[in-house]
Amino acid sequence: MKTSERLTGKAAGFAAFLLFCTGYPLTAAADVDISPVLLEMSAQNDKQVVRIGNSSDITKSFQVDVVAWSQSIEEREIYTPTDELLAVPPLFTLEPGEQQVVRIGLMRDADTDQELSYRVFFTELEPPQLEERTASGINVRLRFGIPVFVAPLSPASPDVEFVTLRTIEDNTFMELRNTGNVRVKVNEVRYKAPASPDKEVSQAVFYLHPGKTGFLPLKIPNQNAGGTVELVTDTAGIIEYALARPQ
């Protein structure tokens, strides 16, 4: 059964990334520590570990789930059950001050041509104590996901094509297509208006898988001004694009 997070309505295609541009909060609570927050794997490095610590004064239990992660234009986070990645142990309990090592193993060969993408989710099982409940009486439980990427056997070749600007409901988006064989994560967006010496910088957590098209929210004061945009990425360095008027 497929689990997905979806935006619906006429803005779905163009606004899909708004929901995910902030990423998953791996520091959702100050009393839970997790490291690392991203796993890189390959044919030569098919085992990794994640450490999760409980710095609170109450006992916490967690369930670990591994899913394959794919994307479409309207569904940016598509999760399907998989046996290609294994997490051990799948369940554990942490007393105050304790730390757990979770071992992650790749159970298949790396793909020849394209990077593979997964997520490892940690979900708190034990409800918080009464004083940690919200005023409405709803229990707040942690759930956070770690991206896992498996490098292809062929050399990594990141490449992102800028297609056009899109405007919908007063929001501007850069339509981007990943024509490379590995994901591109945009960490920062730098916009420079024509004839301006200054750049407007905004932070982002924007993943675009190989072969996929996505829409990156862009904050610009004048949608018809043009100018240039620099994308600071993790795999393709800094990419600069010249902007035309939105369609």
Number of helices: 1
**Domains (count):** 2
Specify the overall morphology: globular
CATH superfamily grouping of the largest domain: Immunoglobulins
Text of the CATH class of the largest domain = Mainly Beta
> Could you tell me the radius of gyration in angstroms?
20 Å
Structural class: mainly beta
Strand content: over 45%
Could you spell the SSE succession in H and E letters? Answer: EHEEEEEEEEEEEEEEEEE
How do the strands and helices of this protein lay out in sequence?
Layout: E1 3-5, H1 12-15, E2 32-35, E3 39-41, E4 47-54, E5 60-70, E6 77-81, E7 85-88, E8 91-94, E9 99-106, E10 116-124, E11 143-150, E12 160-168, E13 171-178, E14 184-192, E15 200-208, E16 213-218, E17 227-233, E18 238-243
Parallel strand pairs: 3-11
Antiparallel strand pairs: 1-6, 2-4, 4-9, 5-6, 5-8, 5-10, 7-9, 10-11, 12-13, 13-16, 14-15, 14-17, 17-18
